[in-house]
Backbone:
């Protein structure tokens, strides 16, 4: 398991002080997410029948990184997060300059840790087309930033040529202040809301 999830720290404790500190009263598997400071516990009835596949699935679904890649498994953890604002970088991972853009996006993510979840969406993945169209973006407008508030479905987009830390910070700060770059037809959005 440790080899499969090399970016996850694993530990075992029987110390009563540690268990009390984390409100653990019995055999528990806990995942501590640094991105939103959330502790997720695997239900005790699930521990009785745990195997490698079930444990892997629990980690894959709930493990969020500073920047989490959007996929069918991670979407569950993203929408179960206590952080209601998500910033998506929609970019083709095979595009020139991808690595540099990701590096700057990760640096910007540190500025908003605990306030905004940073998500990477690979625009070359066919299954992500539905998500891209939700934000009313065309392939010609990519790469782009899209910010989304899960509580009230408010969102905004910003087509970009490359990611800069200042650009991401200004876009996020503006959204947090209630500023939007474009007016979206929210009544129409609610009528045609699709699961991302």
Residues:
């Amino acid at each position: 398991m440790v080899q499969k999830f090399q970016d996850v720290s694993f530990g075992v404790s029987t110390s009563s002080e540690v268990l009390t500190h984390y409100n653990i009263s019995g055999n528990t598997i806990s995942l501590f997410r640094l991105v939103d400071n959330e502790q997720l516990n695997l239900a005790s009835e699930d521990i009785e029948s745990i195997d490698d596949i079930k444990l892997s699935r629990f980690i894959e679904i709930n493990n969020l990184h500073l920047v989490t890649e959007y996929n069918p498994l991670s979407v569950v953890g993203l929408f179960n997060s206590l952080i209601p604002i998500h910033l998506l970088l929609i970019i083709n991972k095979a595009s020139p300059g991808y690595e540099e853009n990701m590096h700057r996006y990760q640096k910007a993510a540190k500025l908003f840790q605990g306030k905004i979840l940073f998500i990477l969406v690979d625009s070359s993945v066919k299954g992500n087309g539905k998500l891209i169209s939700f934000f009313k973006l065309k392939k010609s407008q990519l790469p782009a930033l899209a910010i989304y508030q899960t509580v009230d479905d408010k969102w905004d987009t910003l087509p970009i040529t490359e990611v800069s830390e200042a650009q991401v910070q200004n876009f996020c700060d503006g959204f947090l202040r209630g500023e939007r770059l474009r007016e979206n037809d929210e009544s129409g959005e609610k009528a045609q809301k699709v699961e991302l």
In short: The two ends are 29 Å apart (CA to CA). Confidence is low (pLDDT under 50) at residues 185-195. The longest helix spans residues 98-111. The longest strand covers residues 85-91.
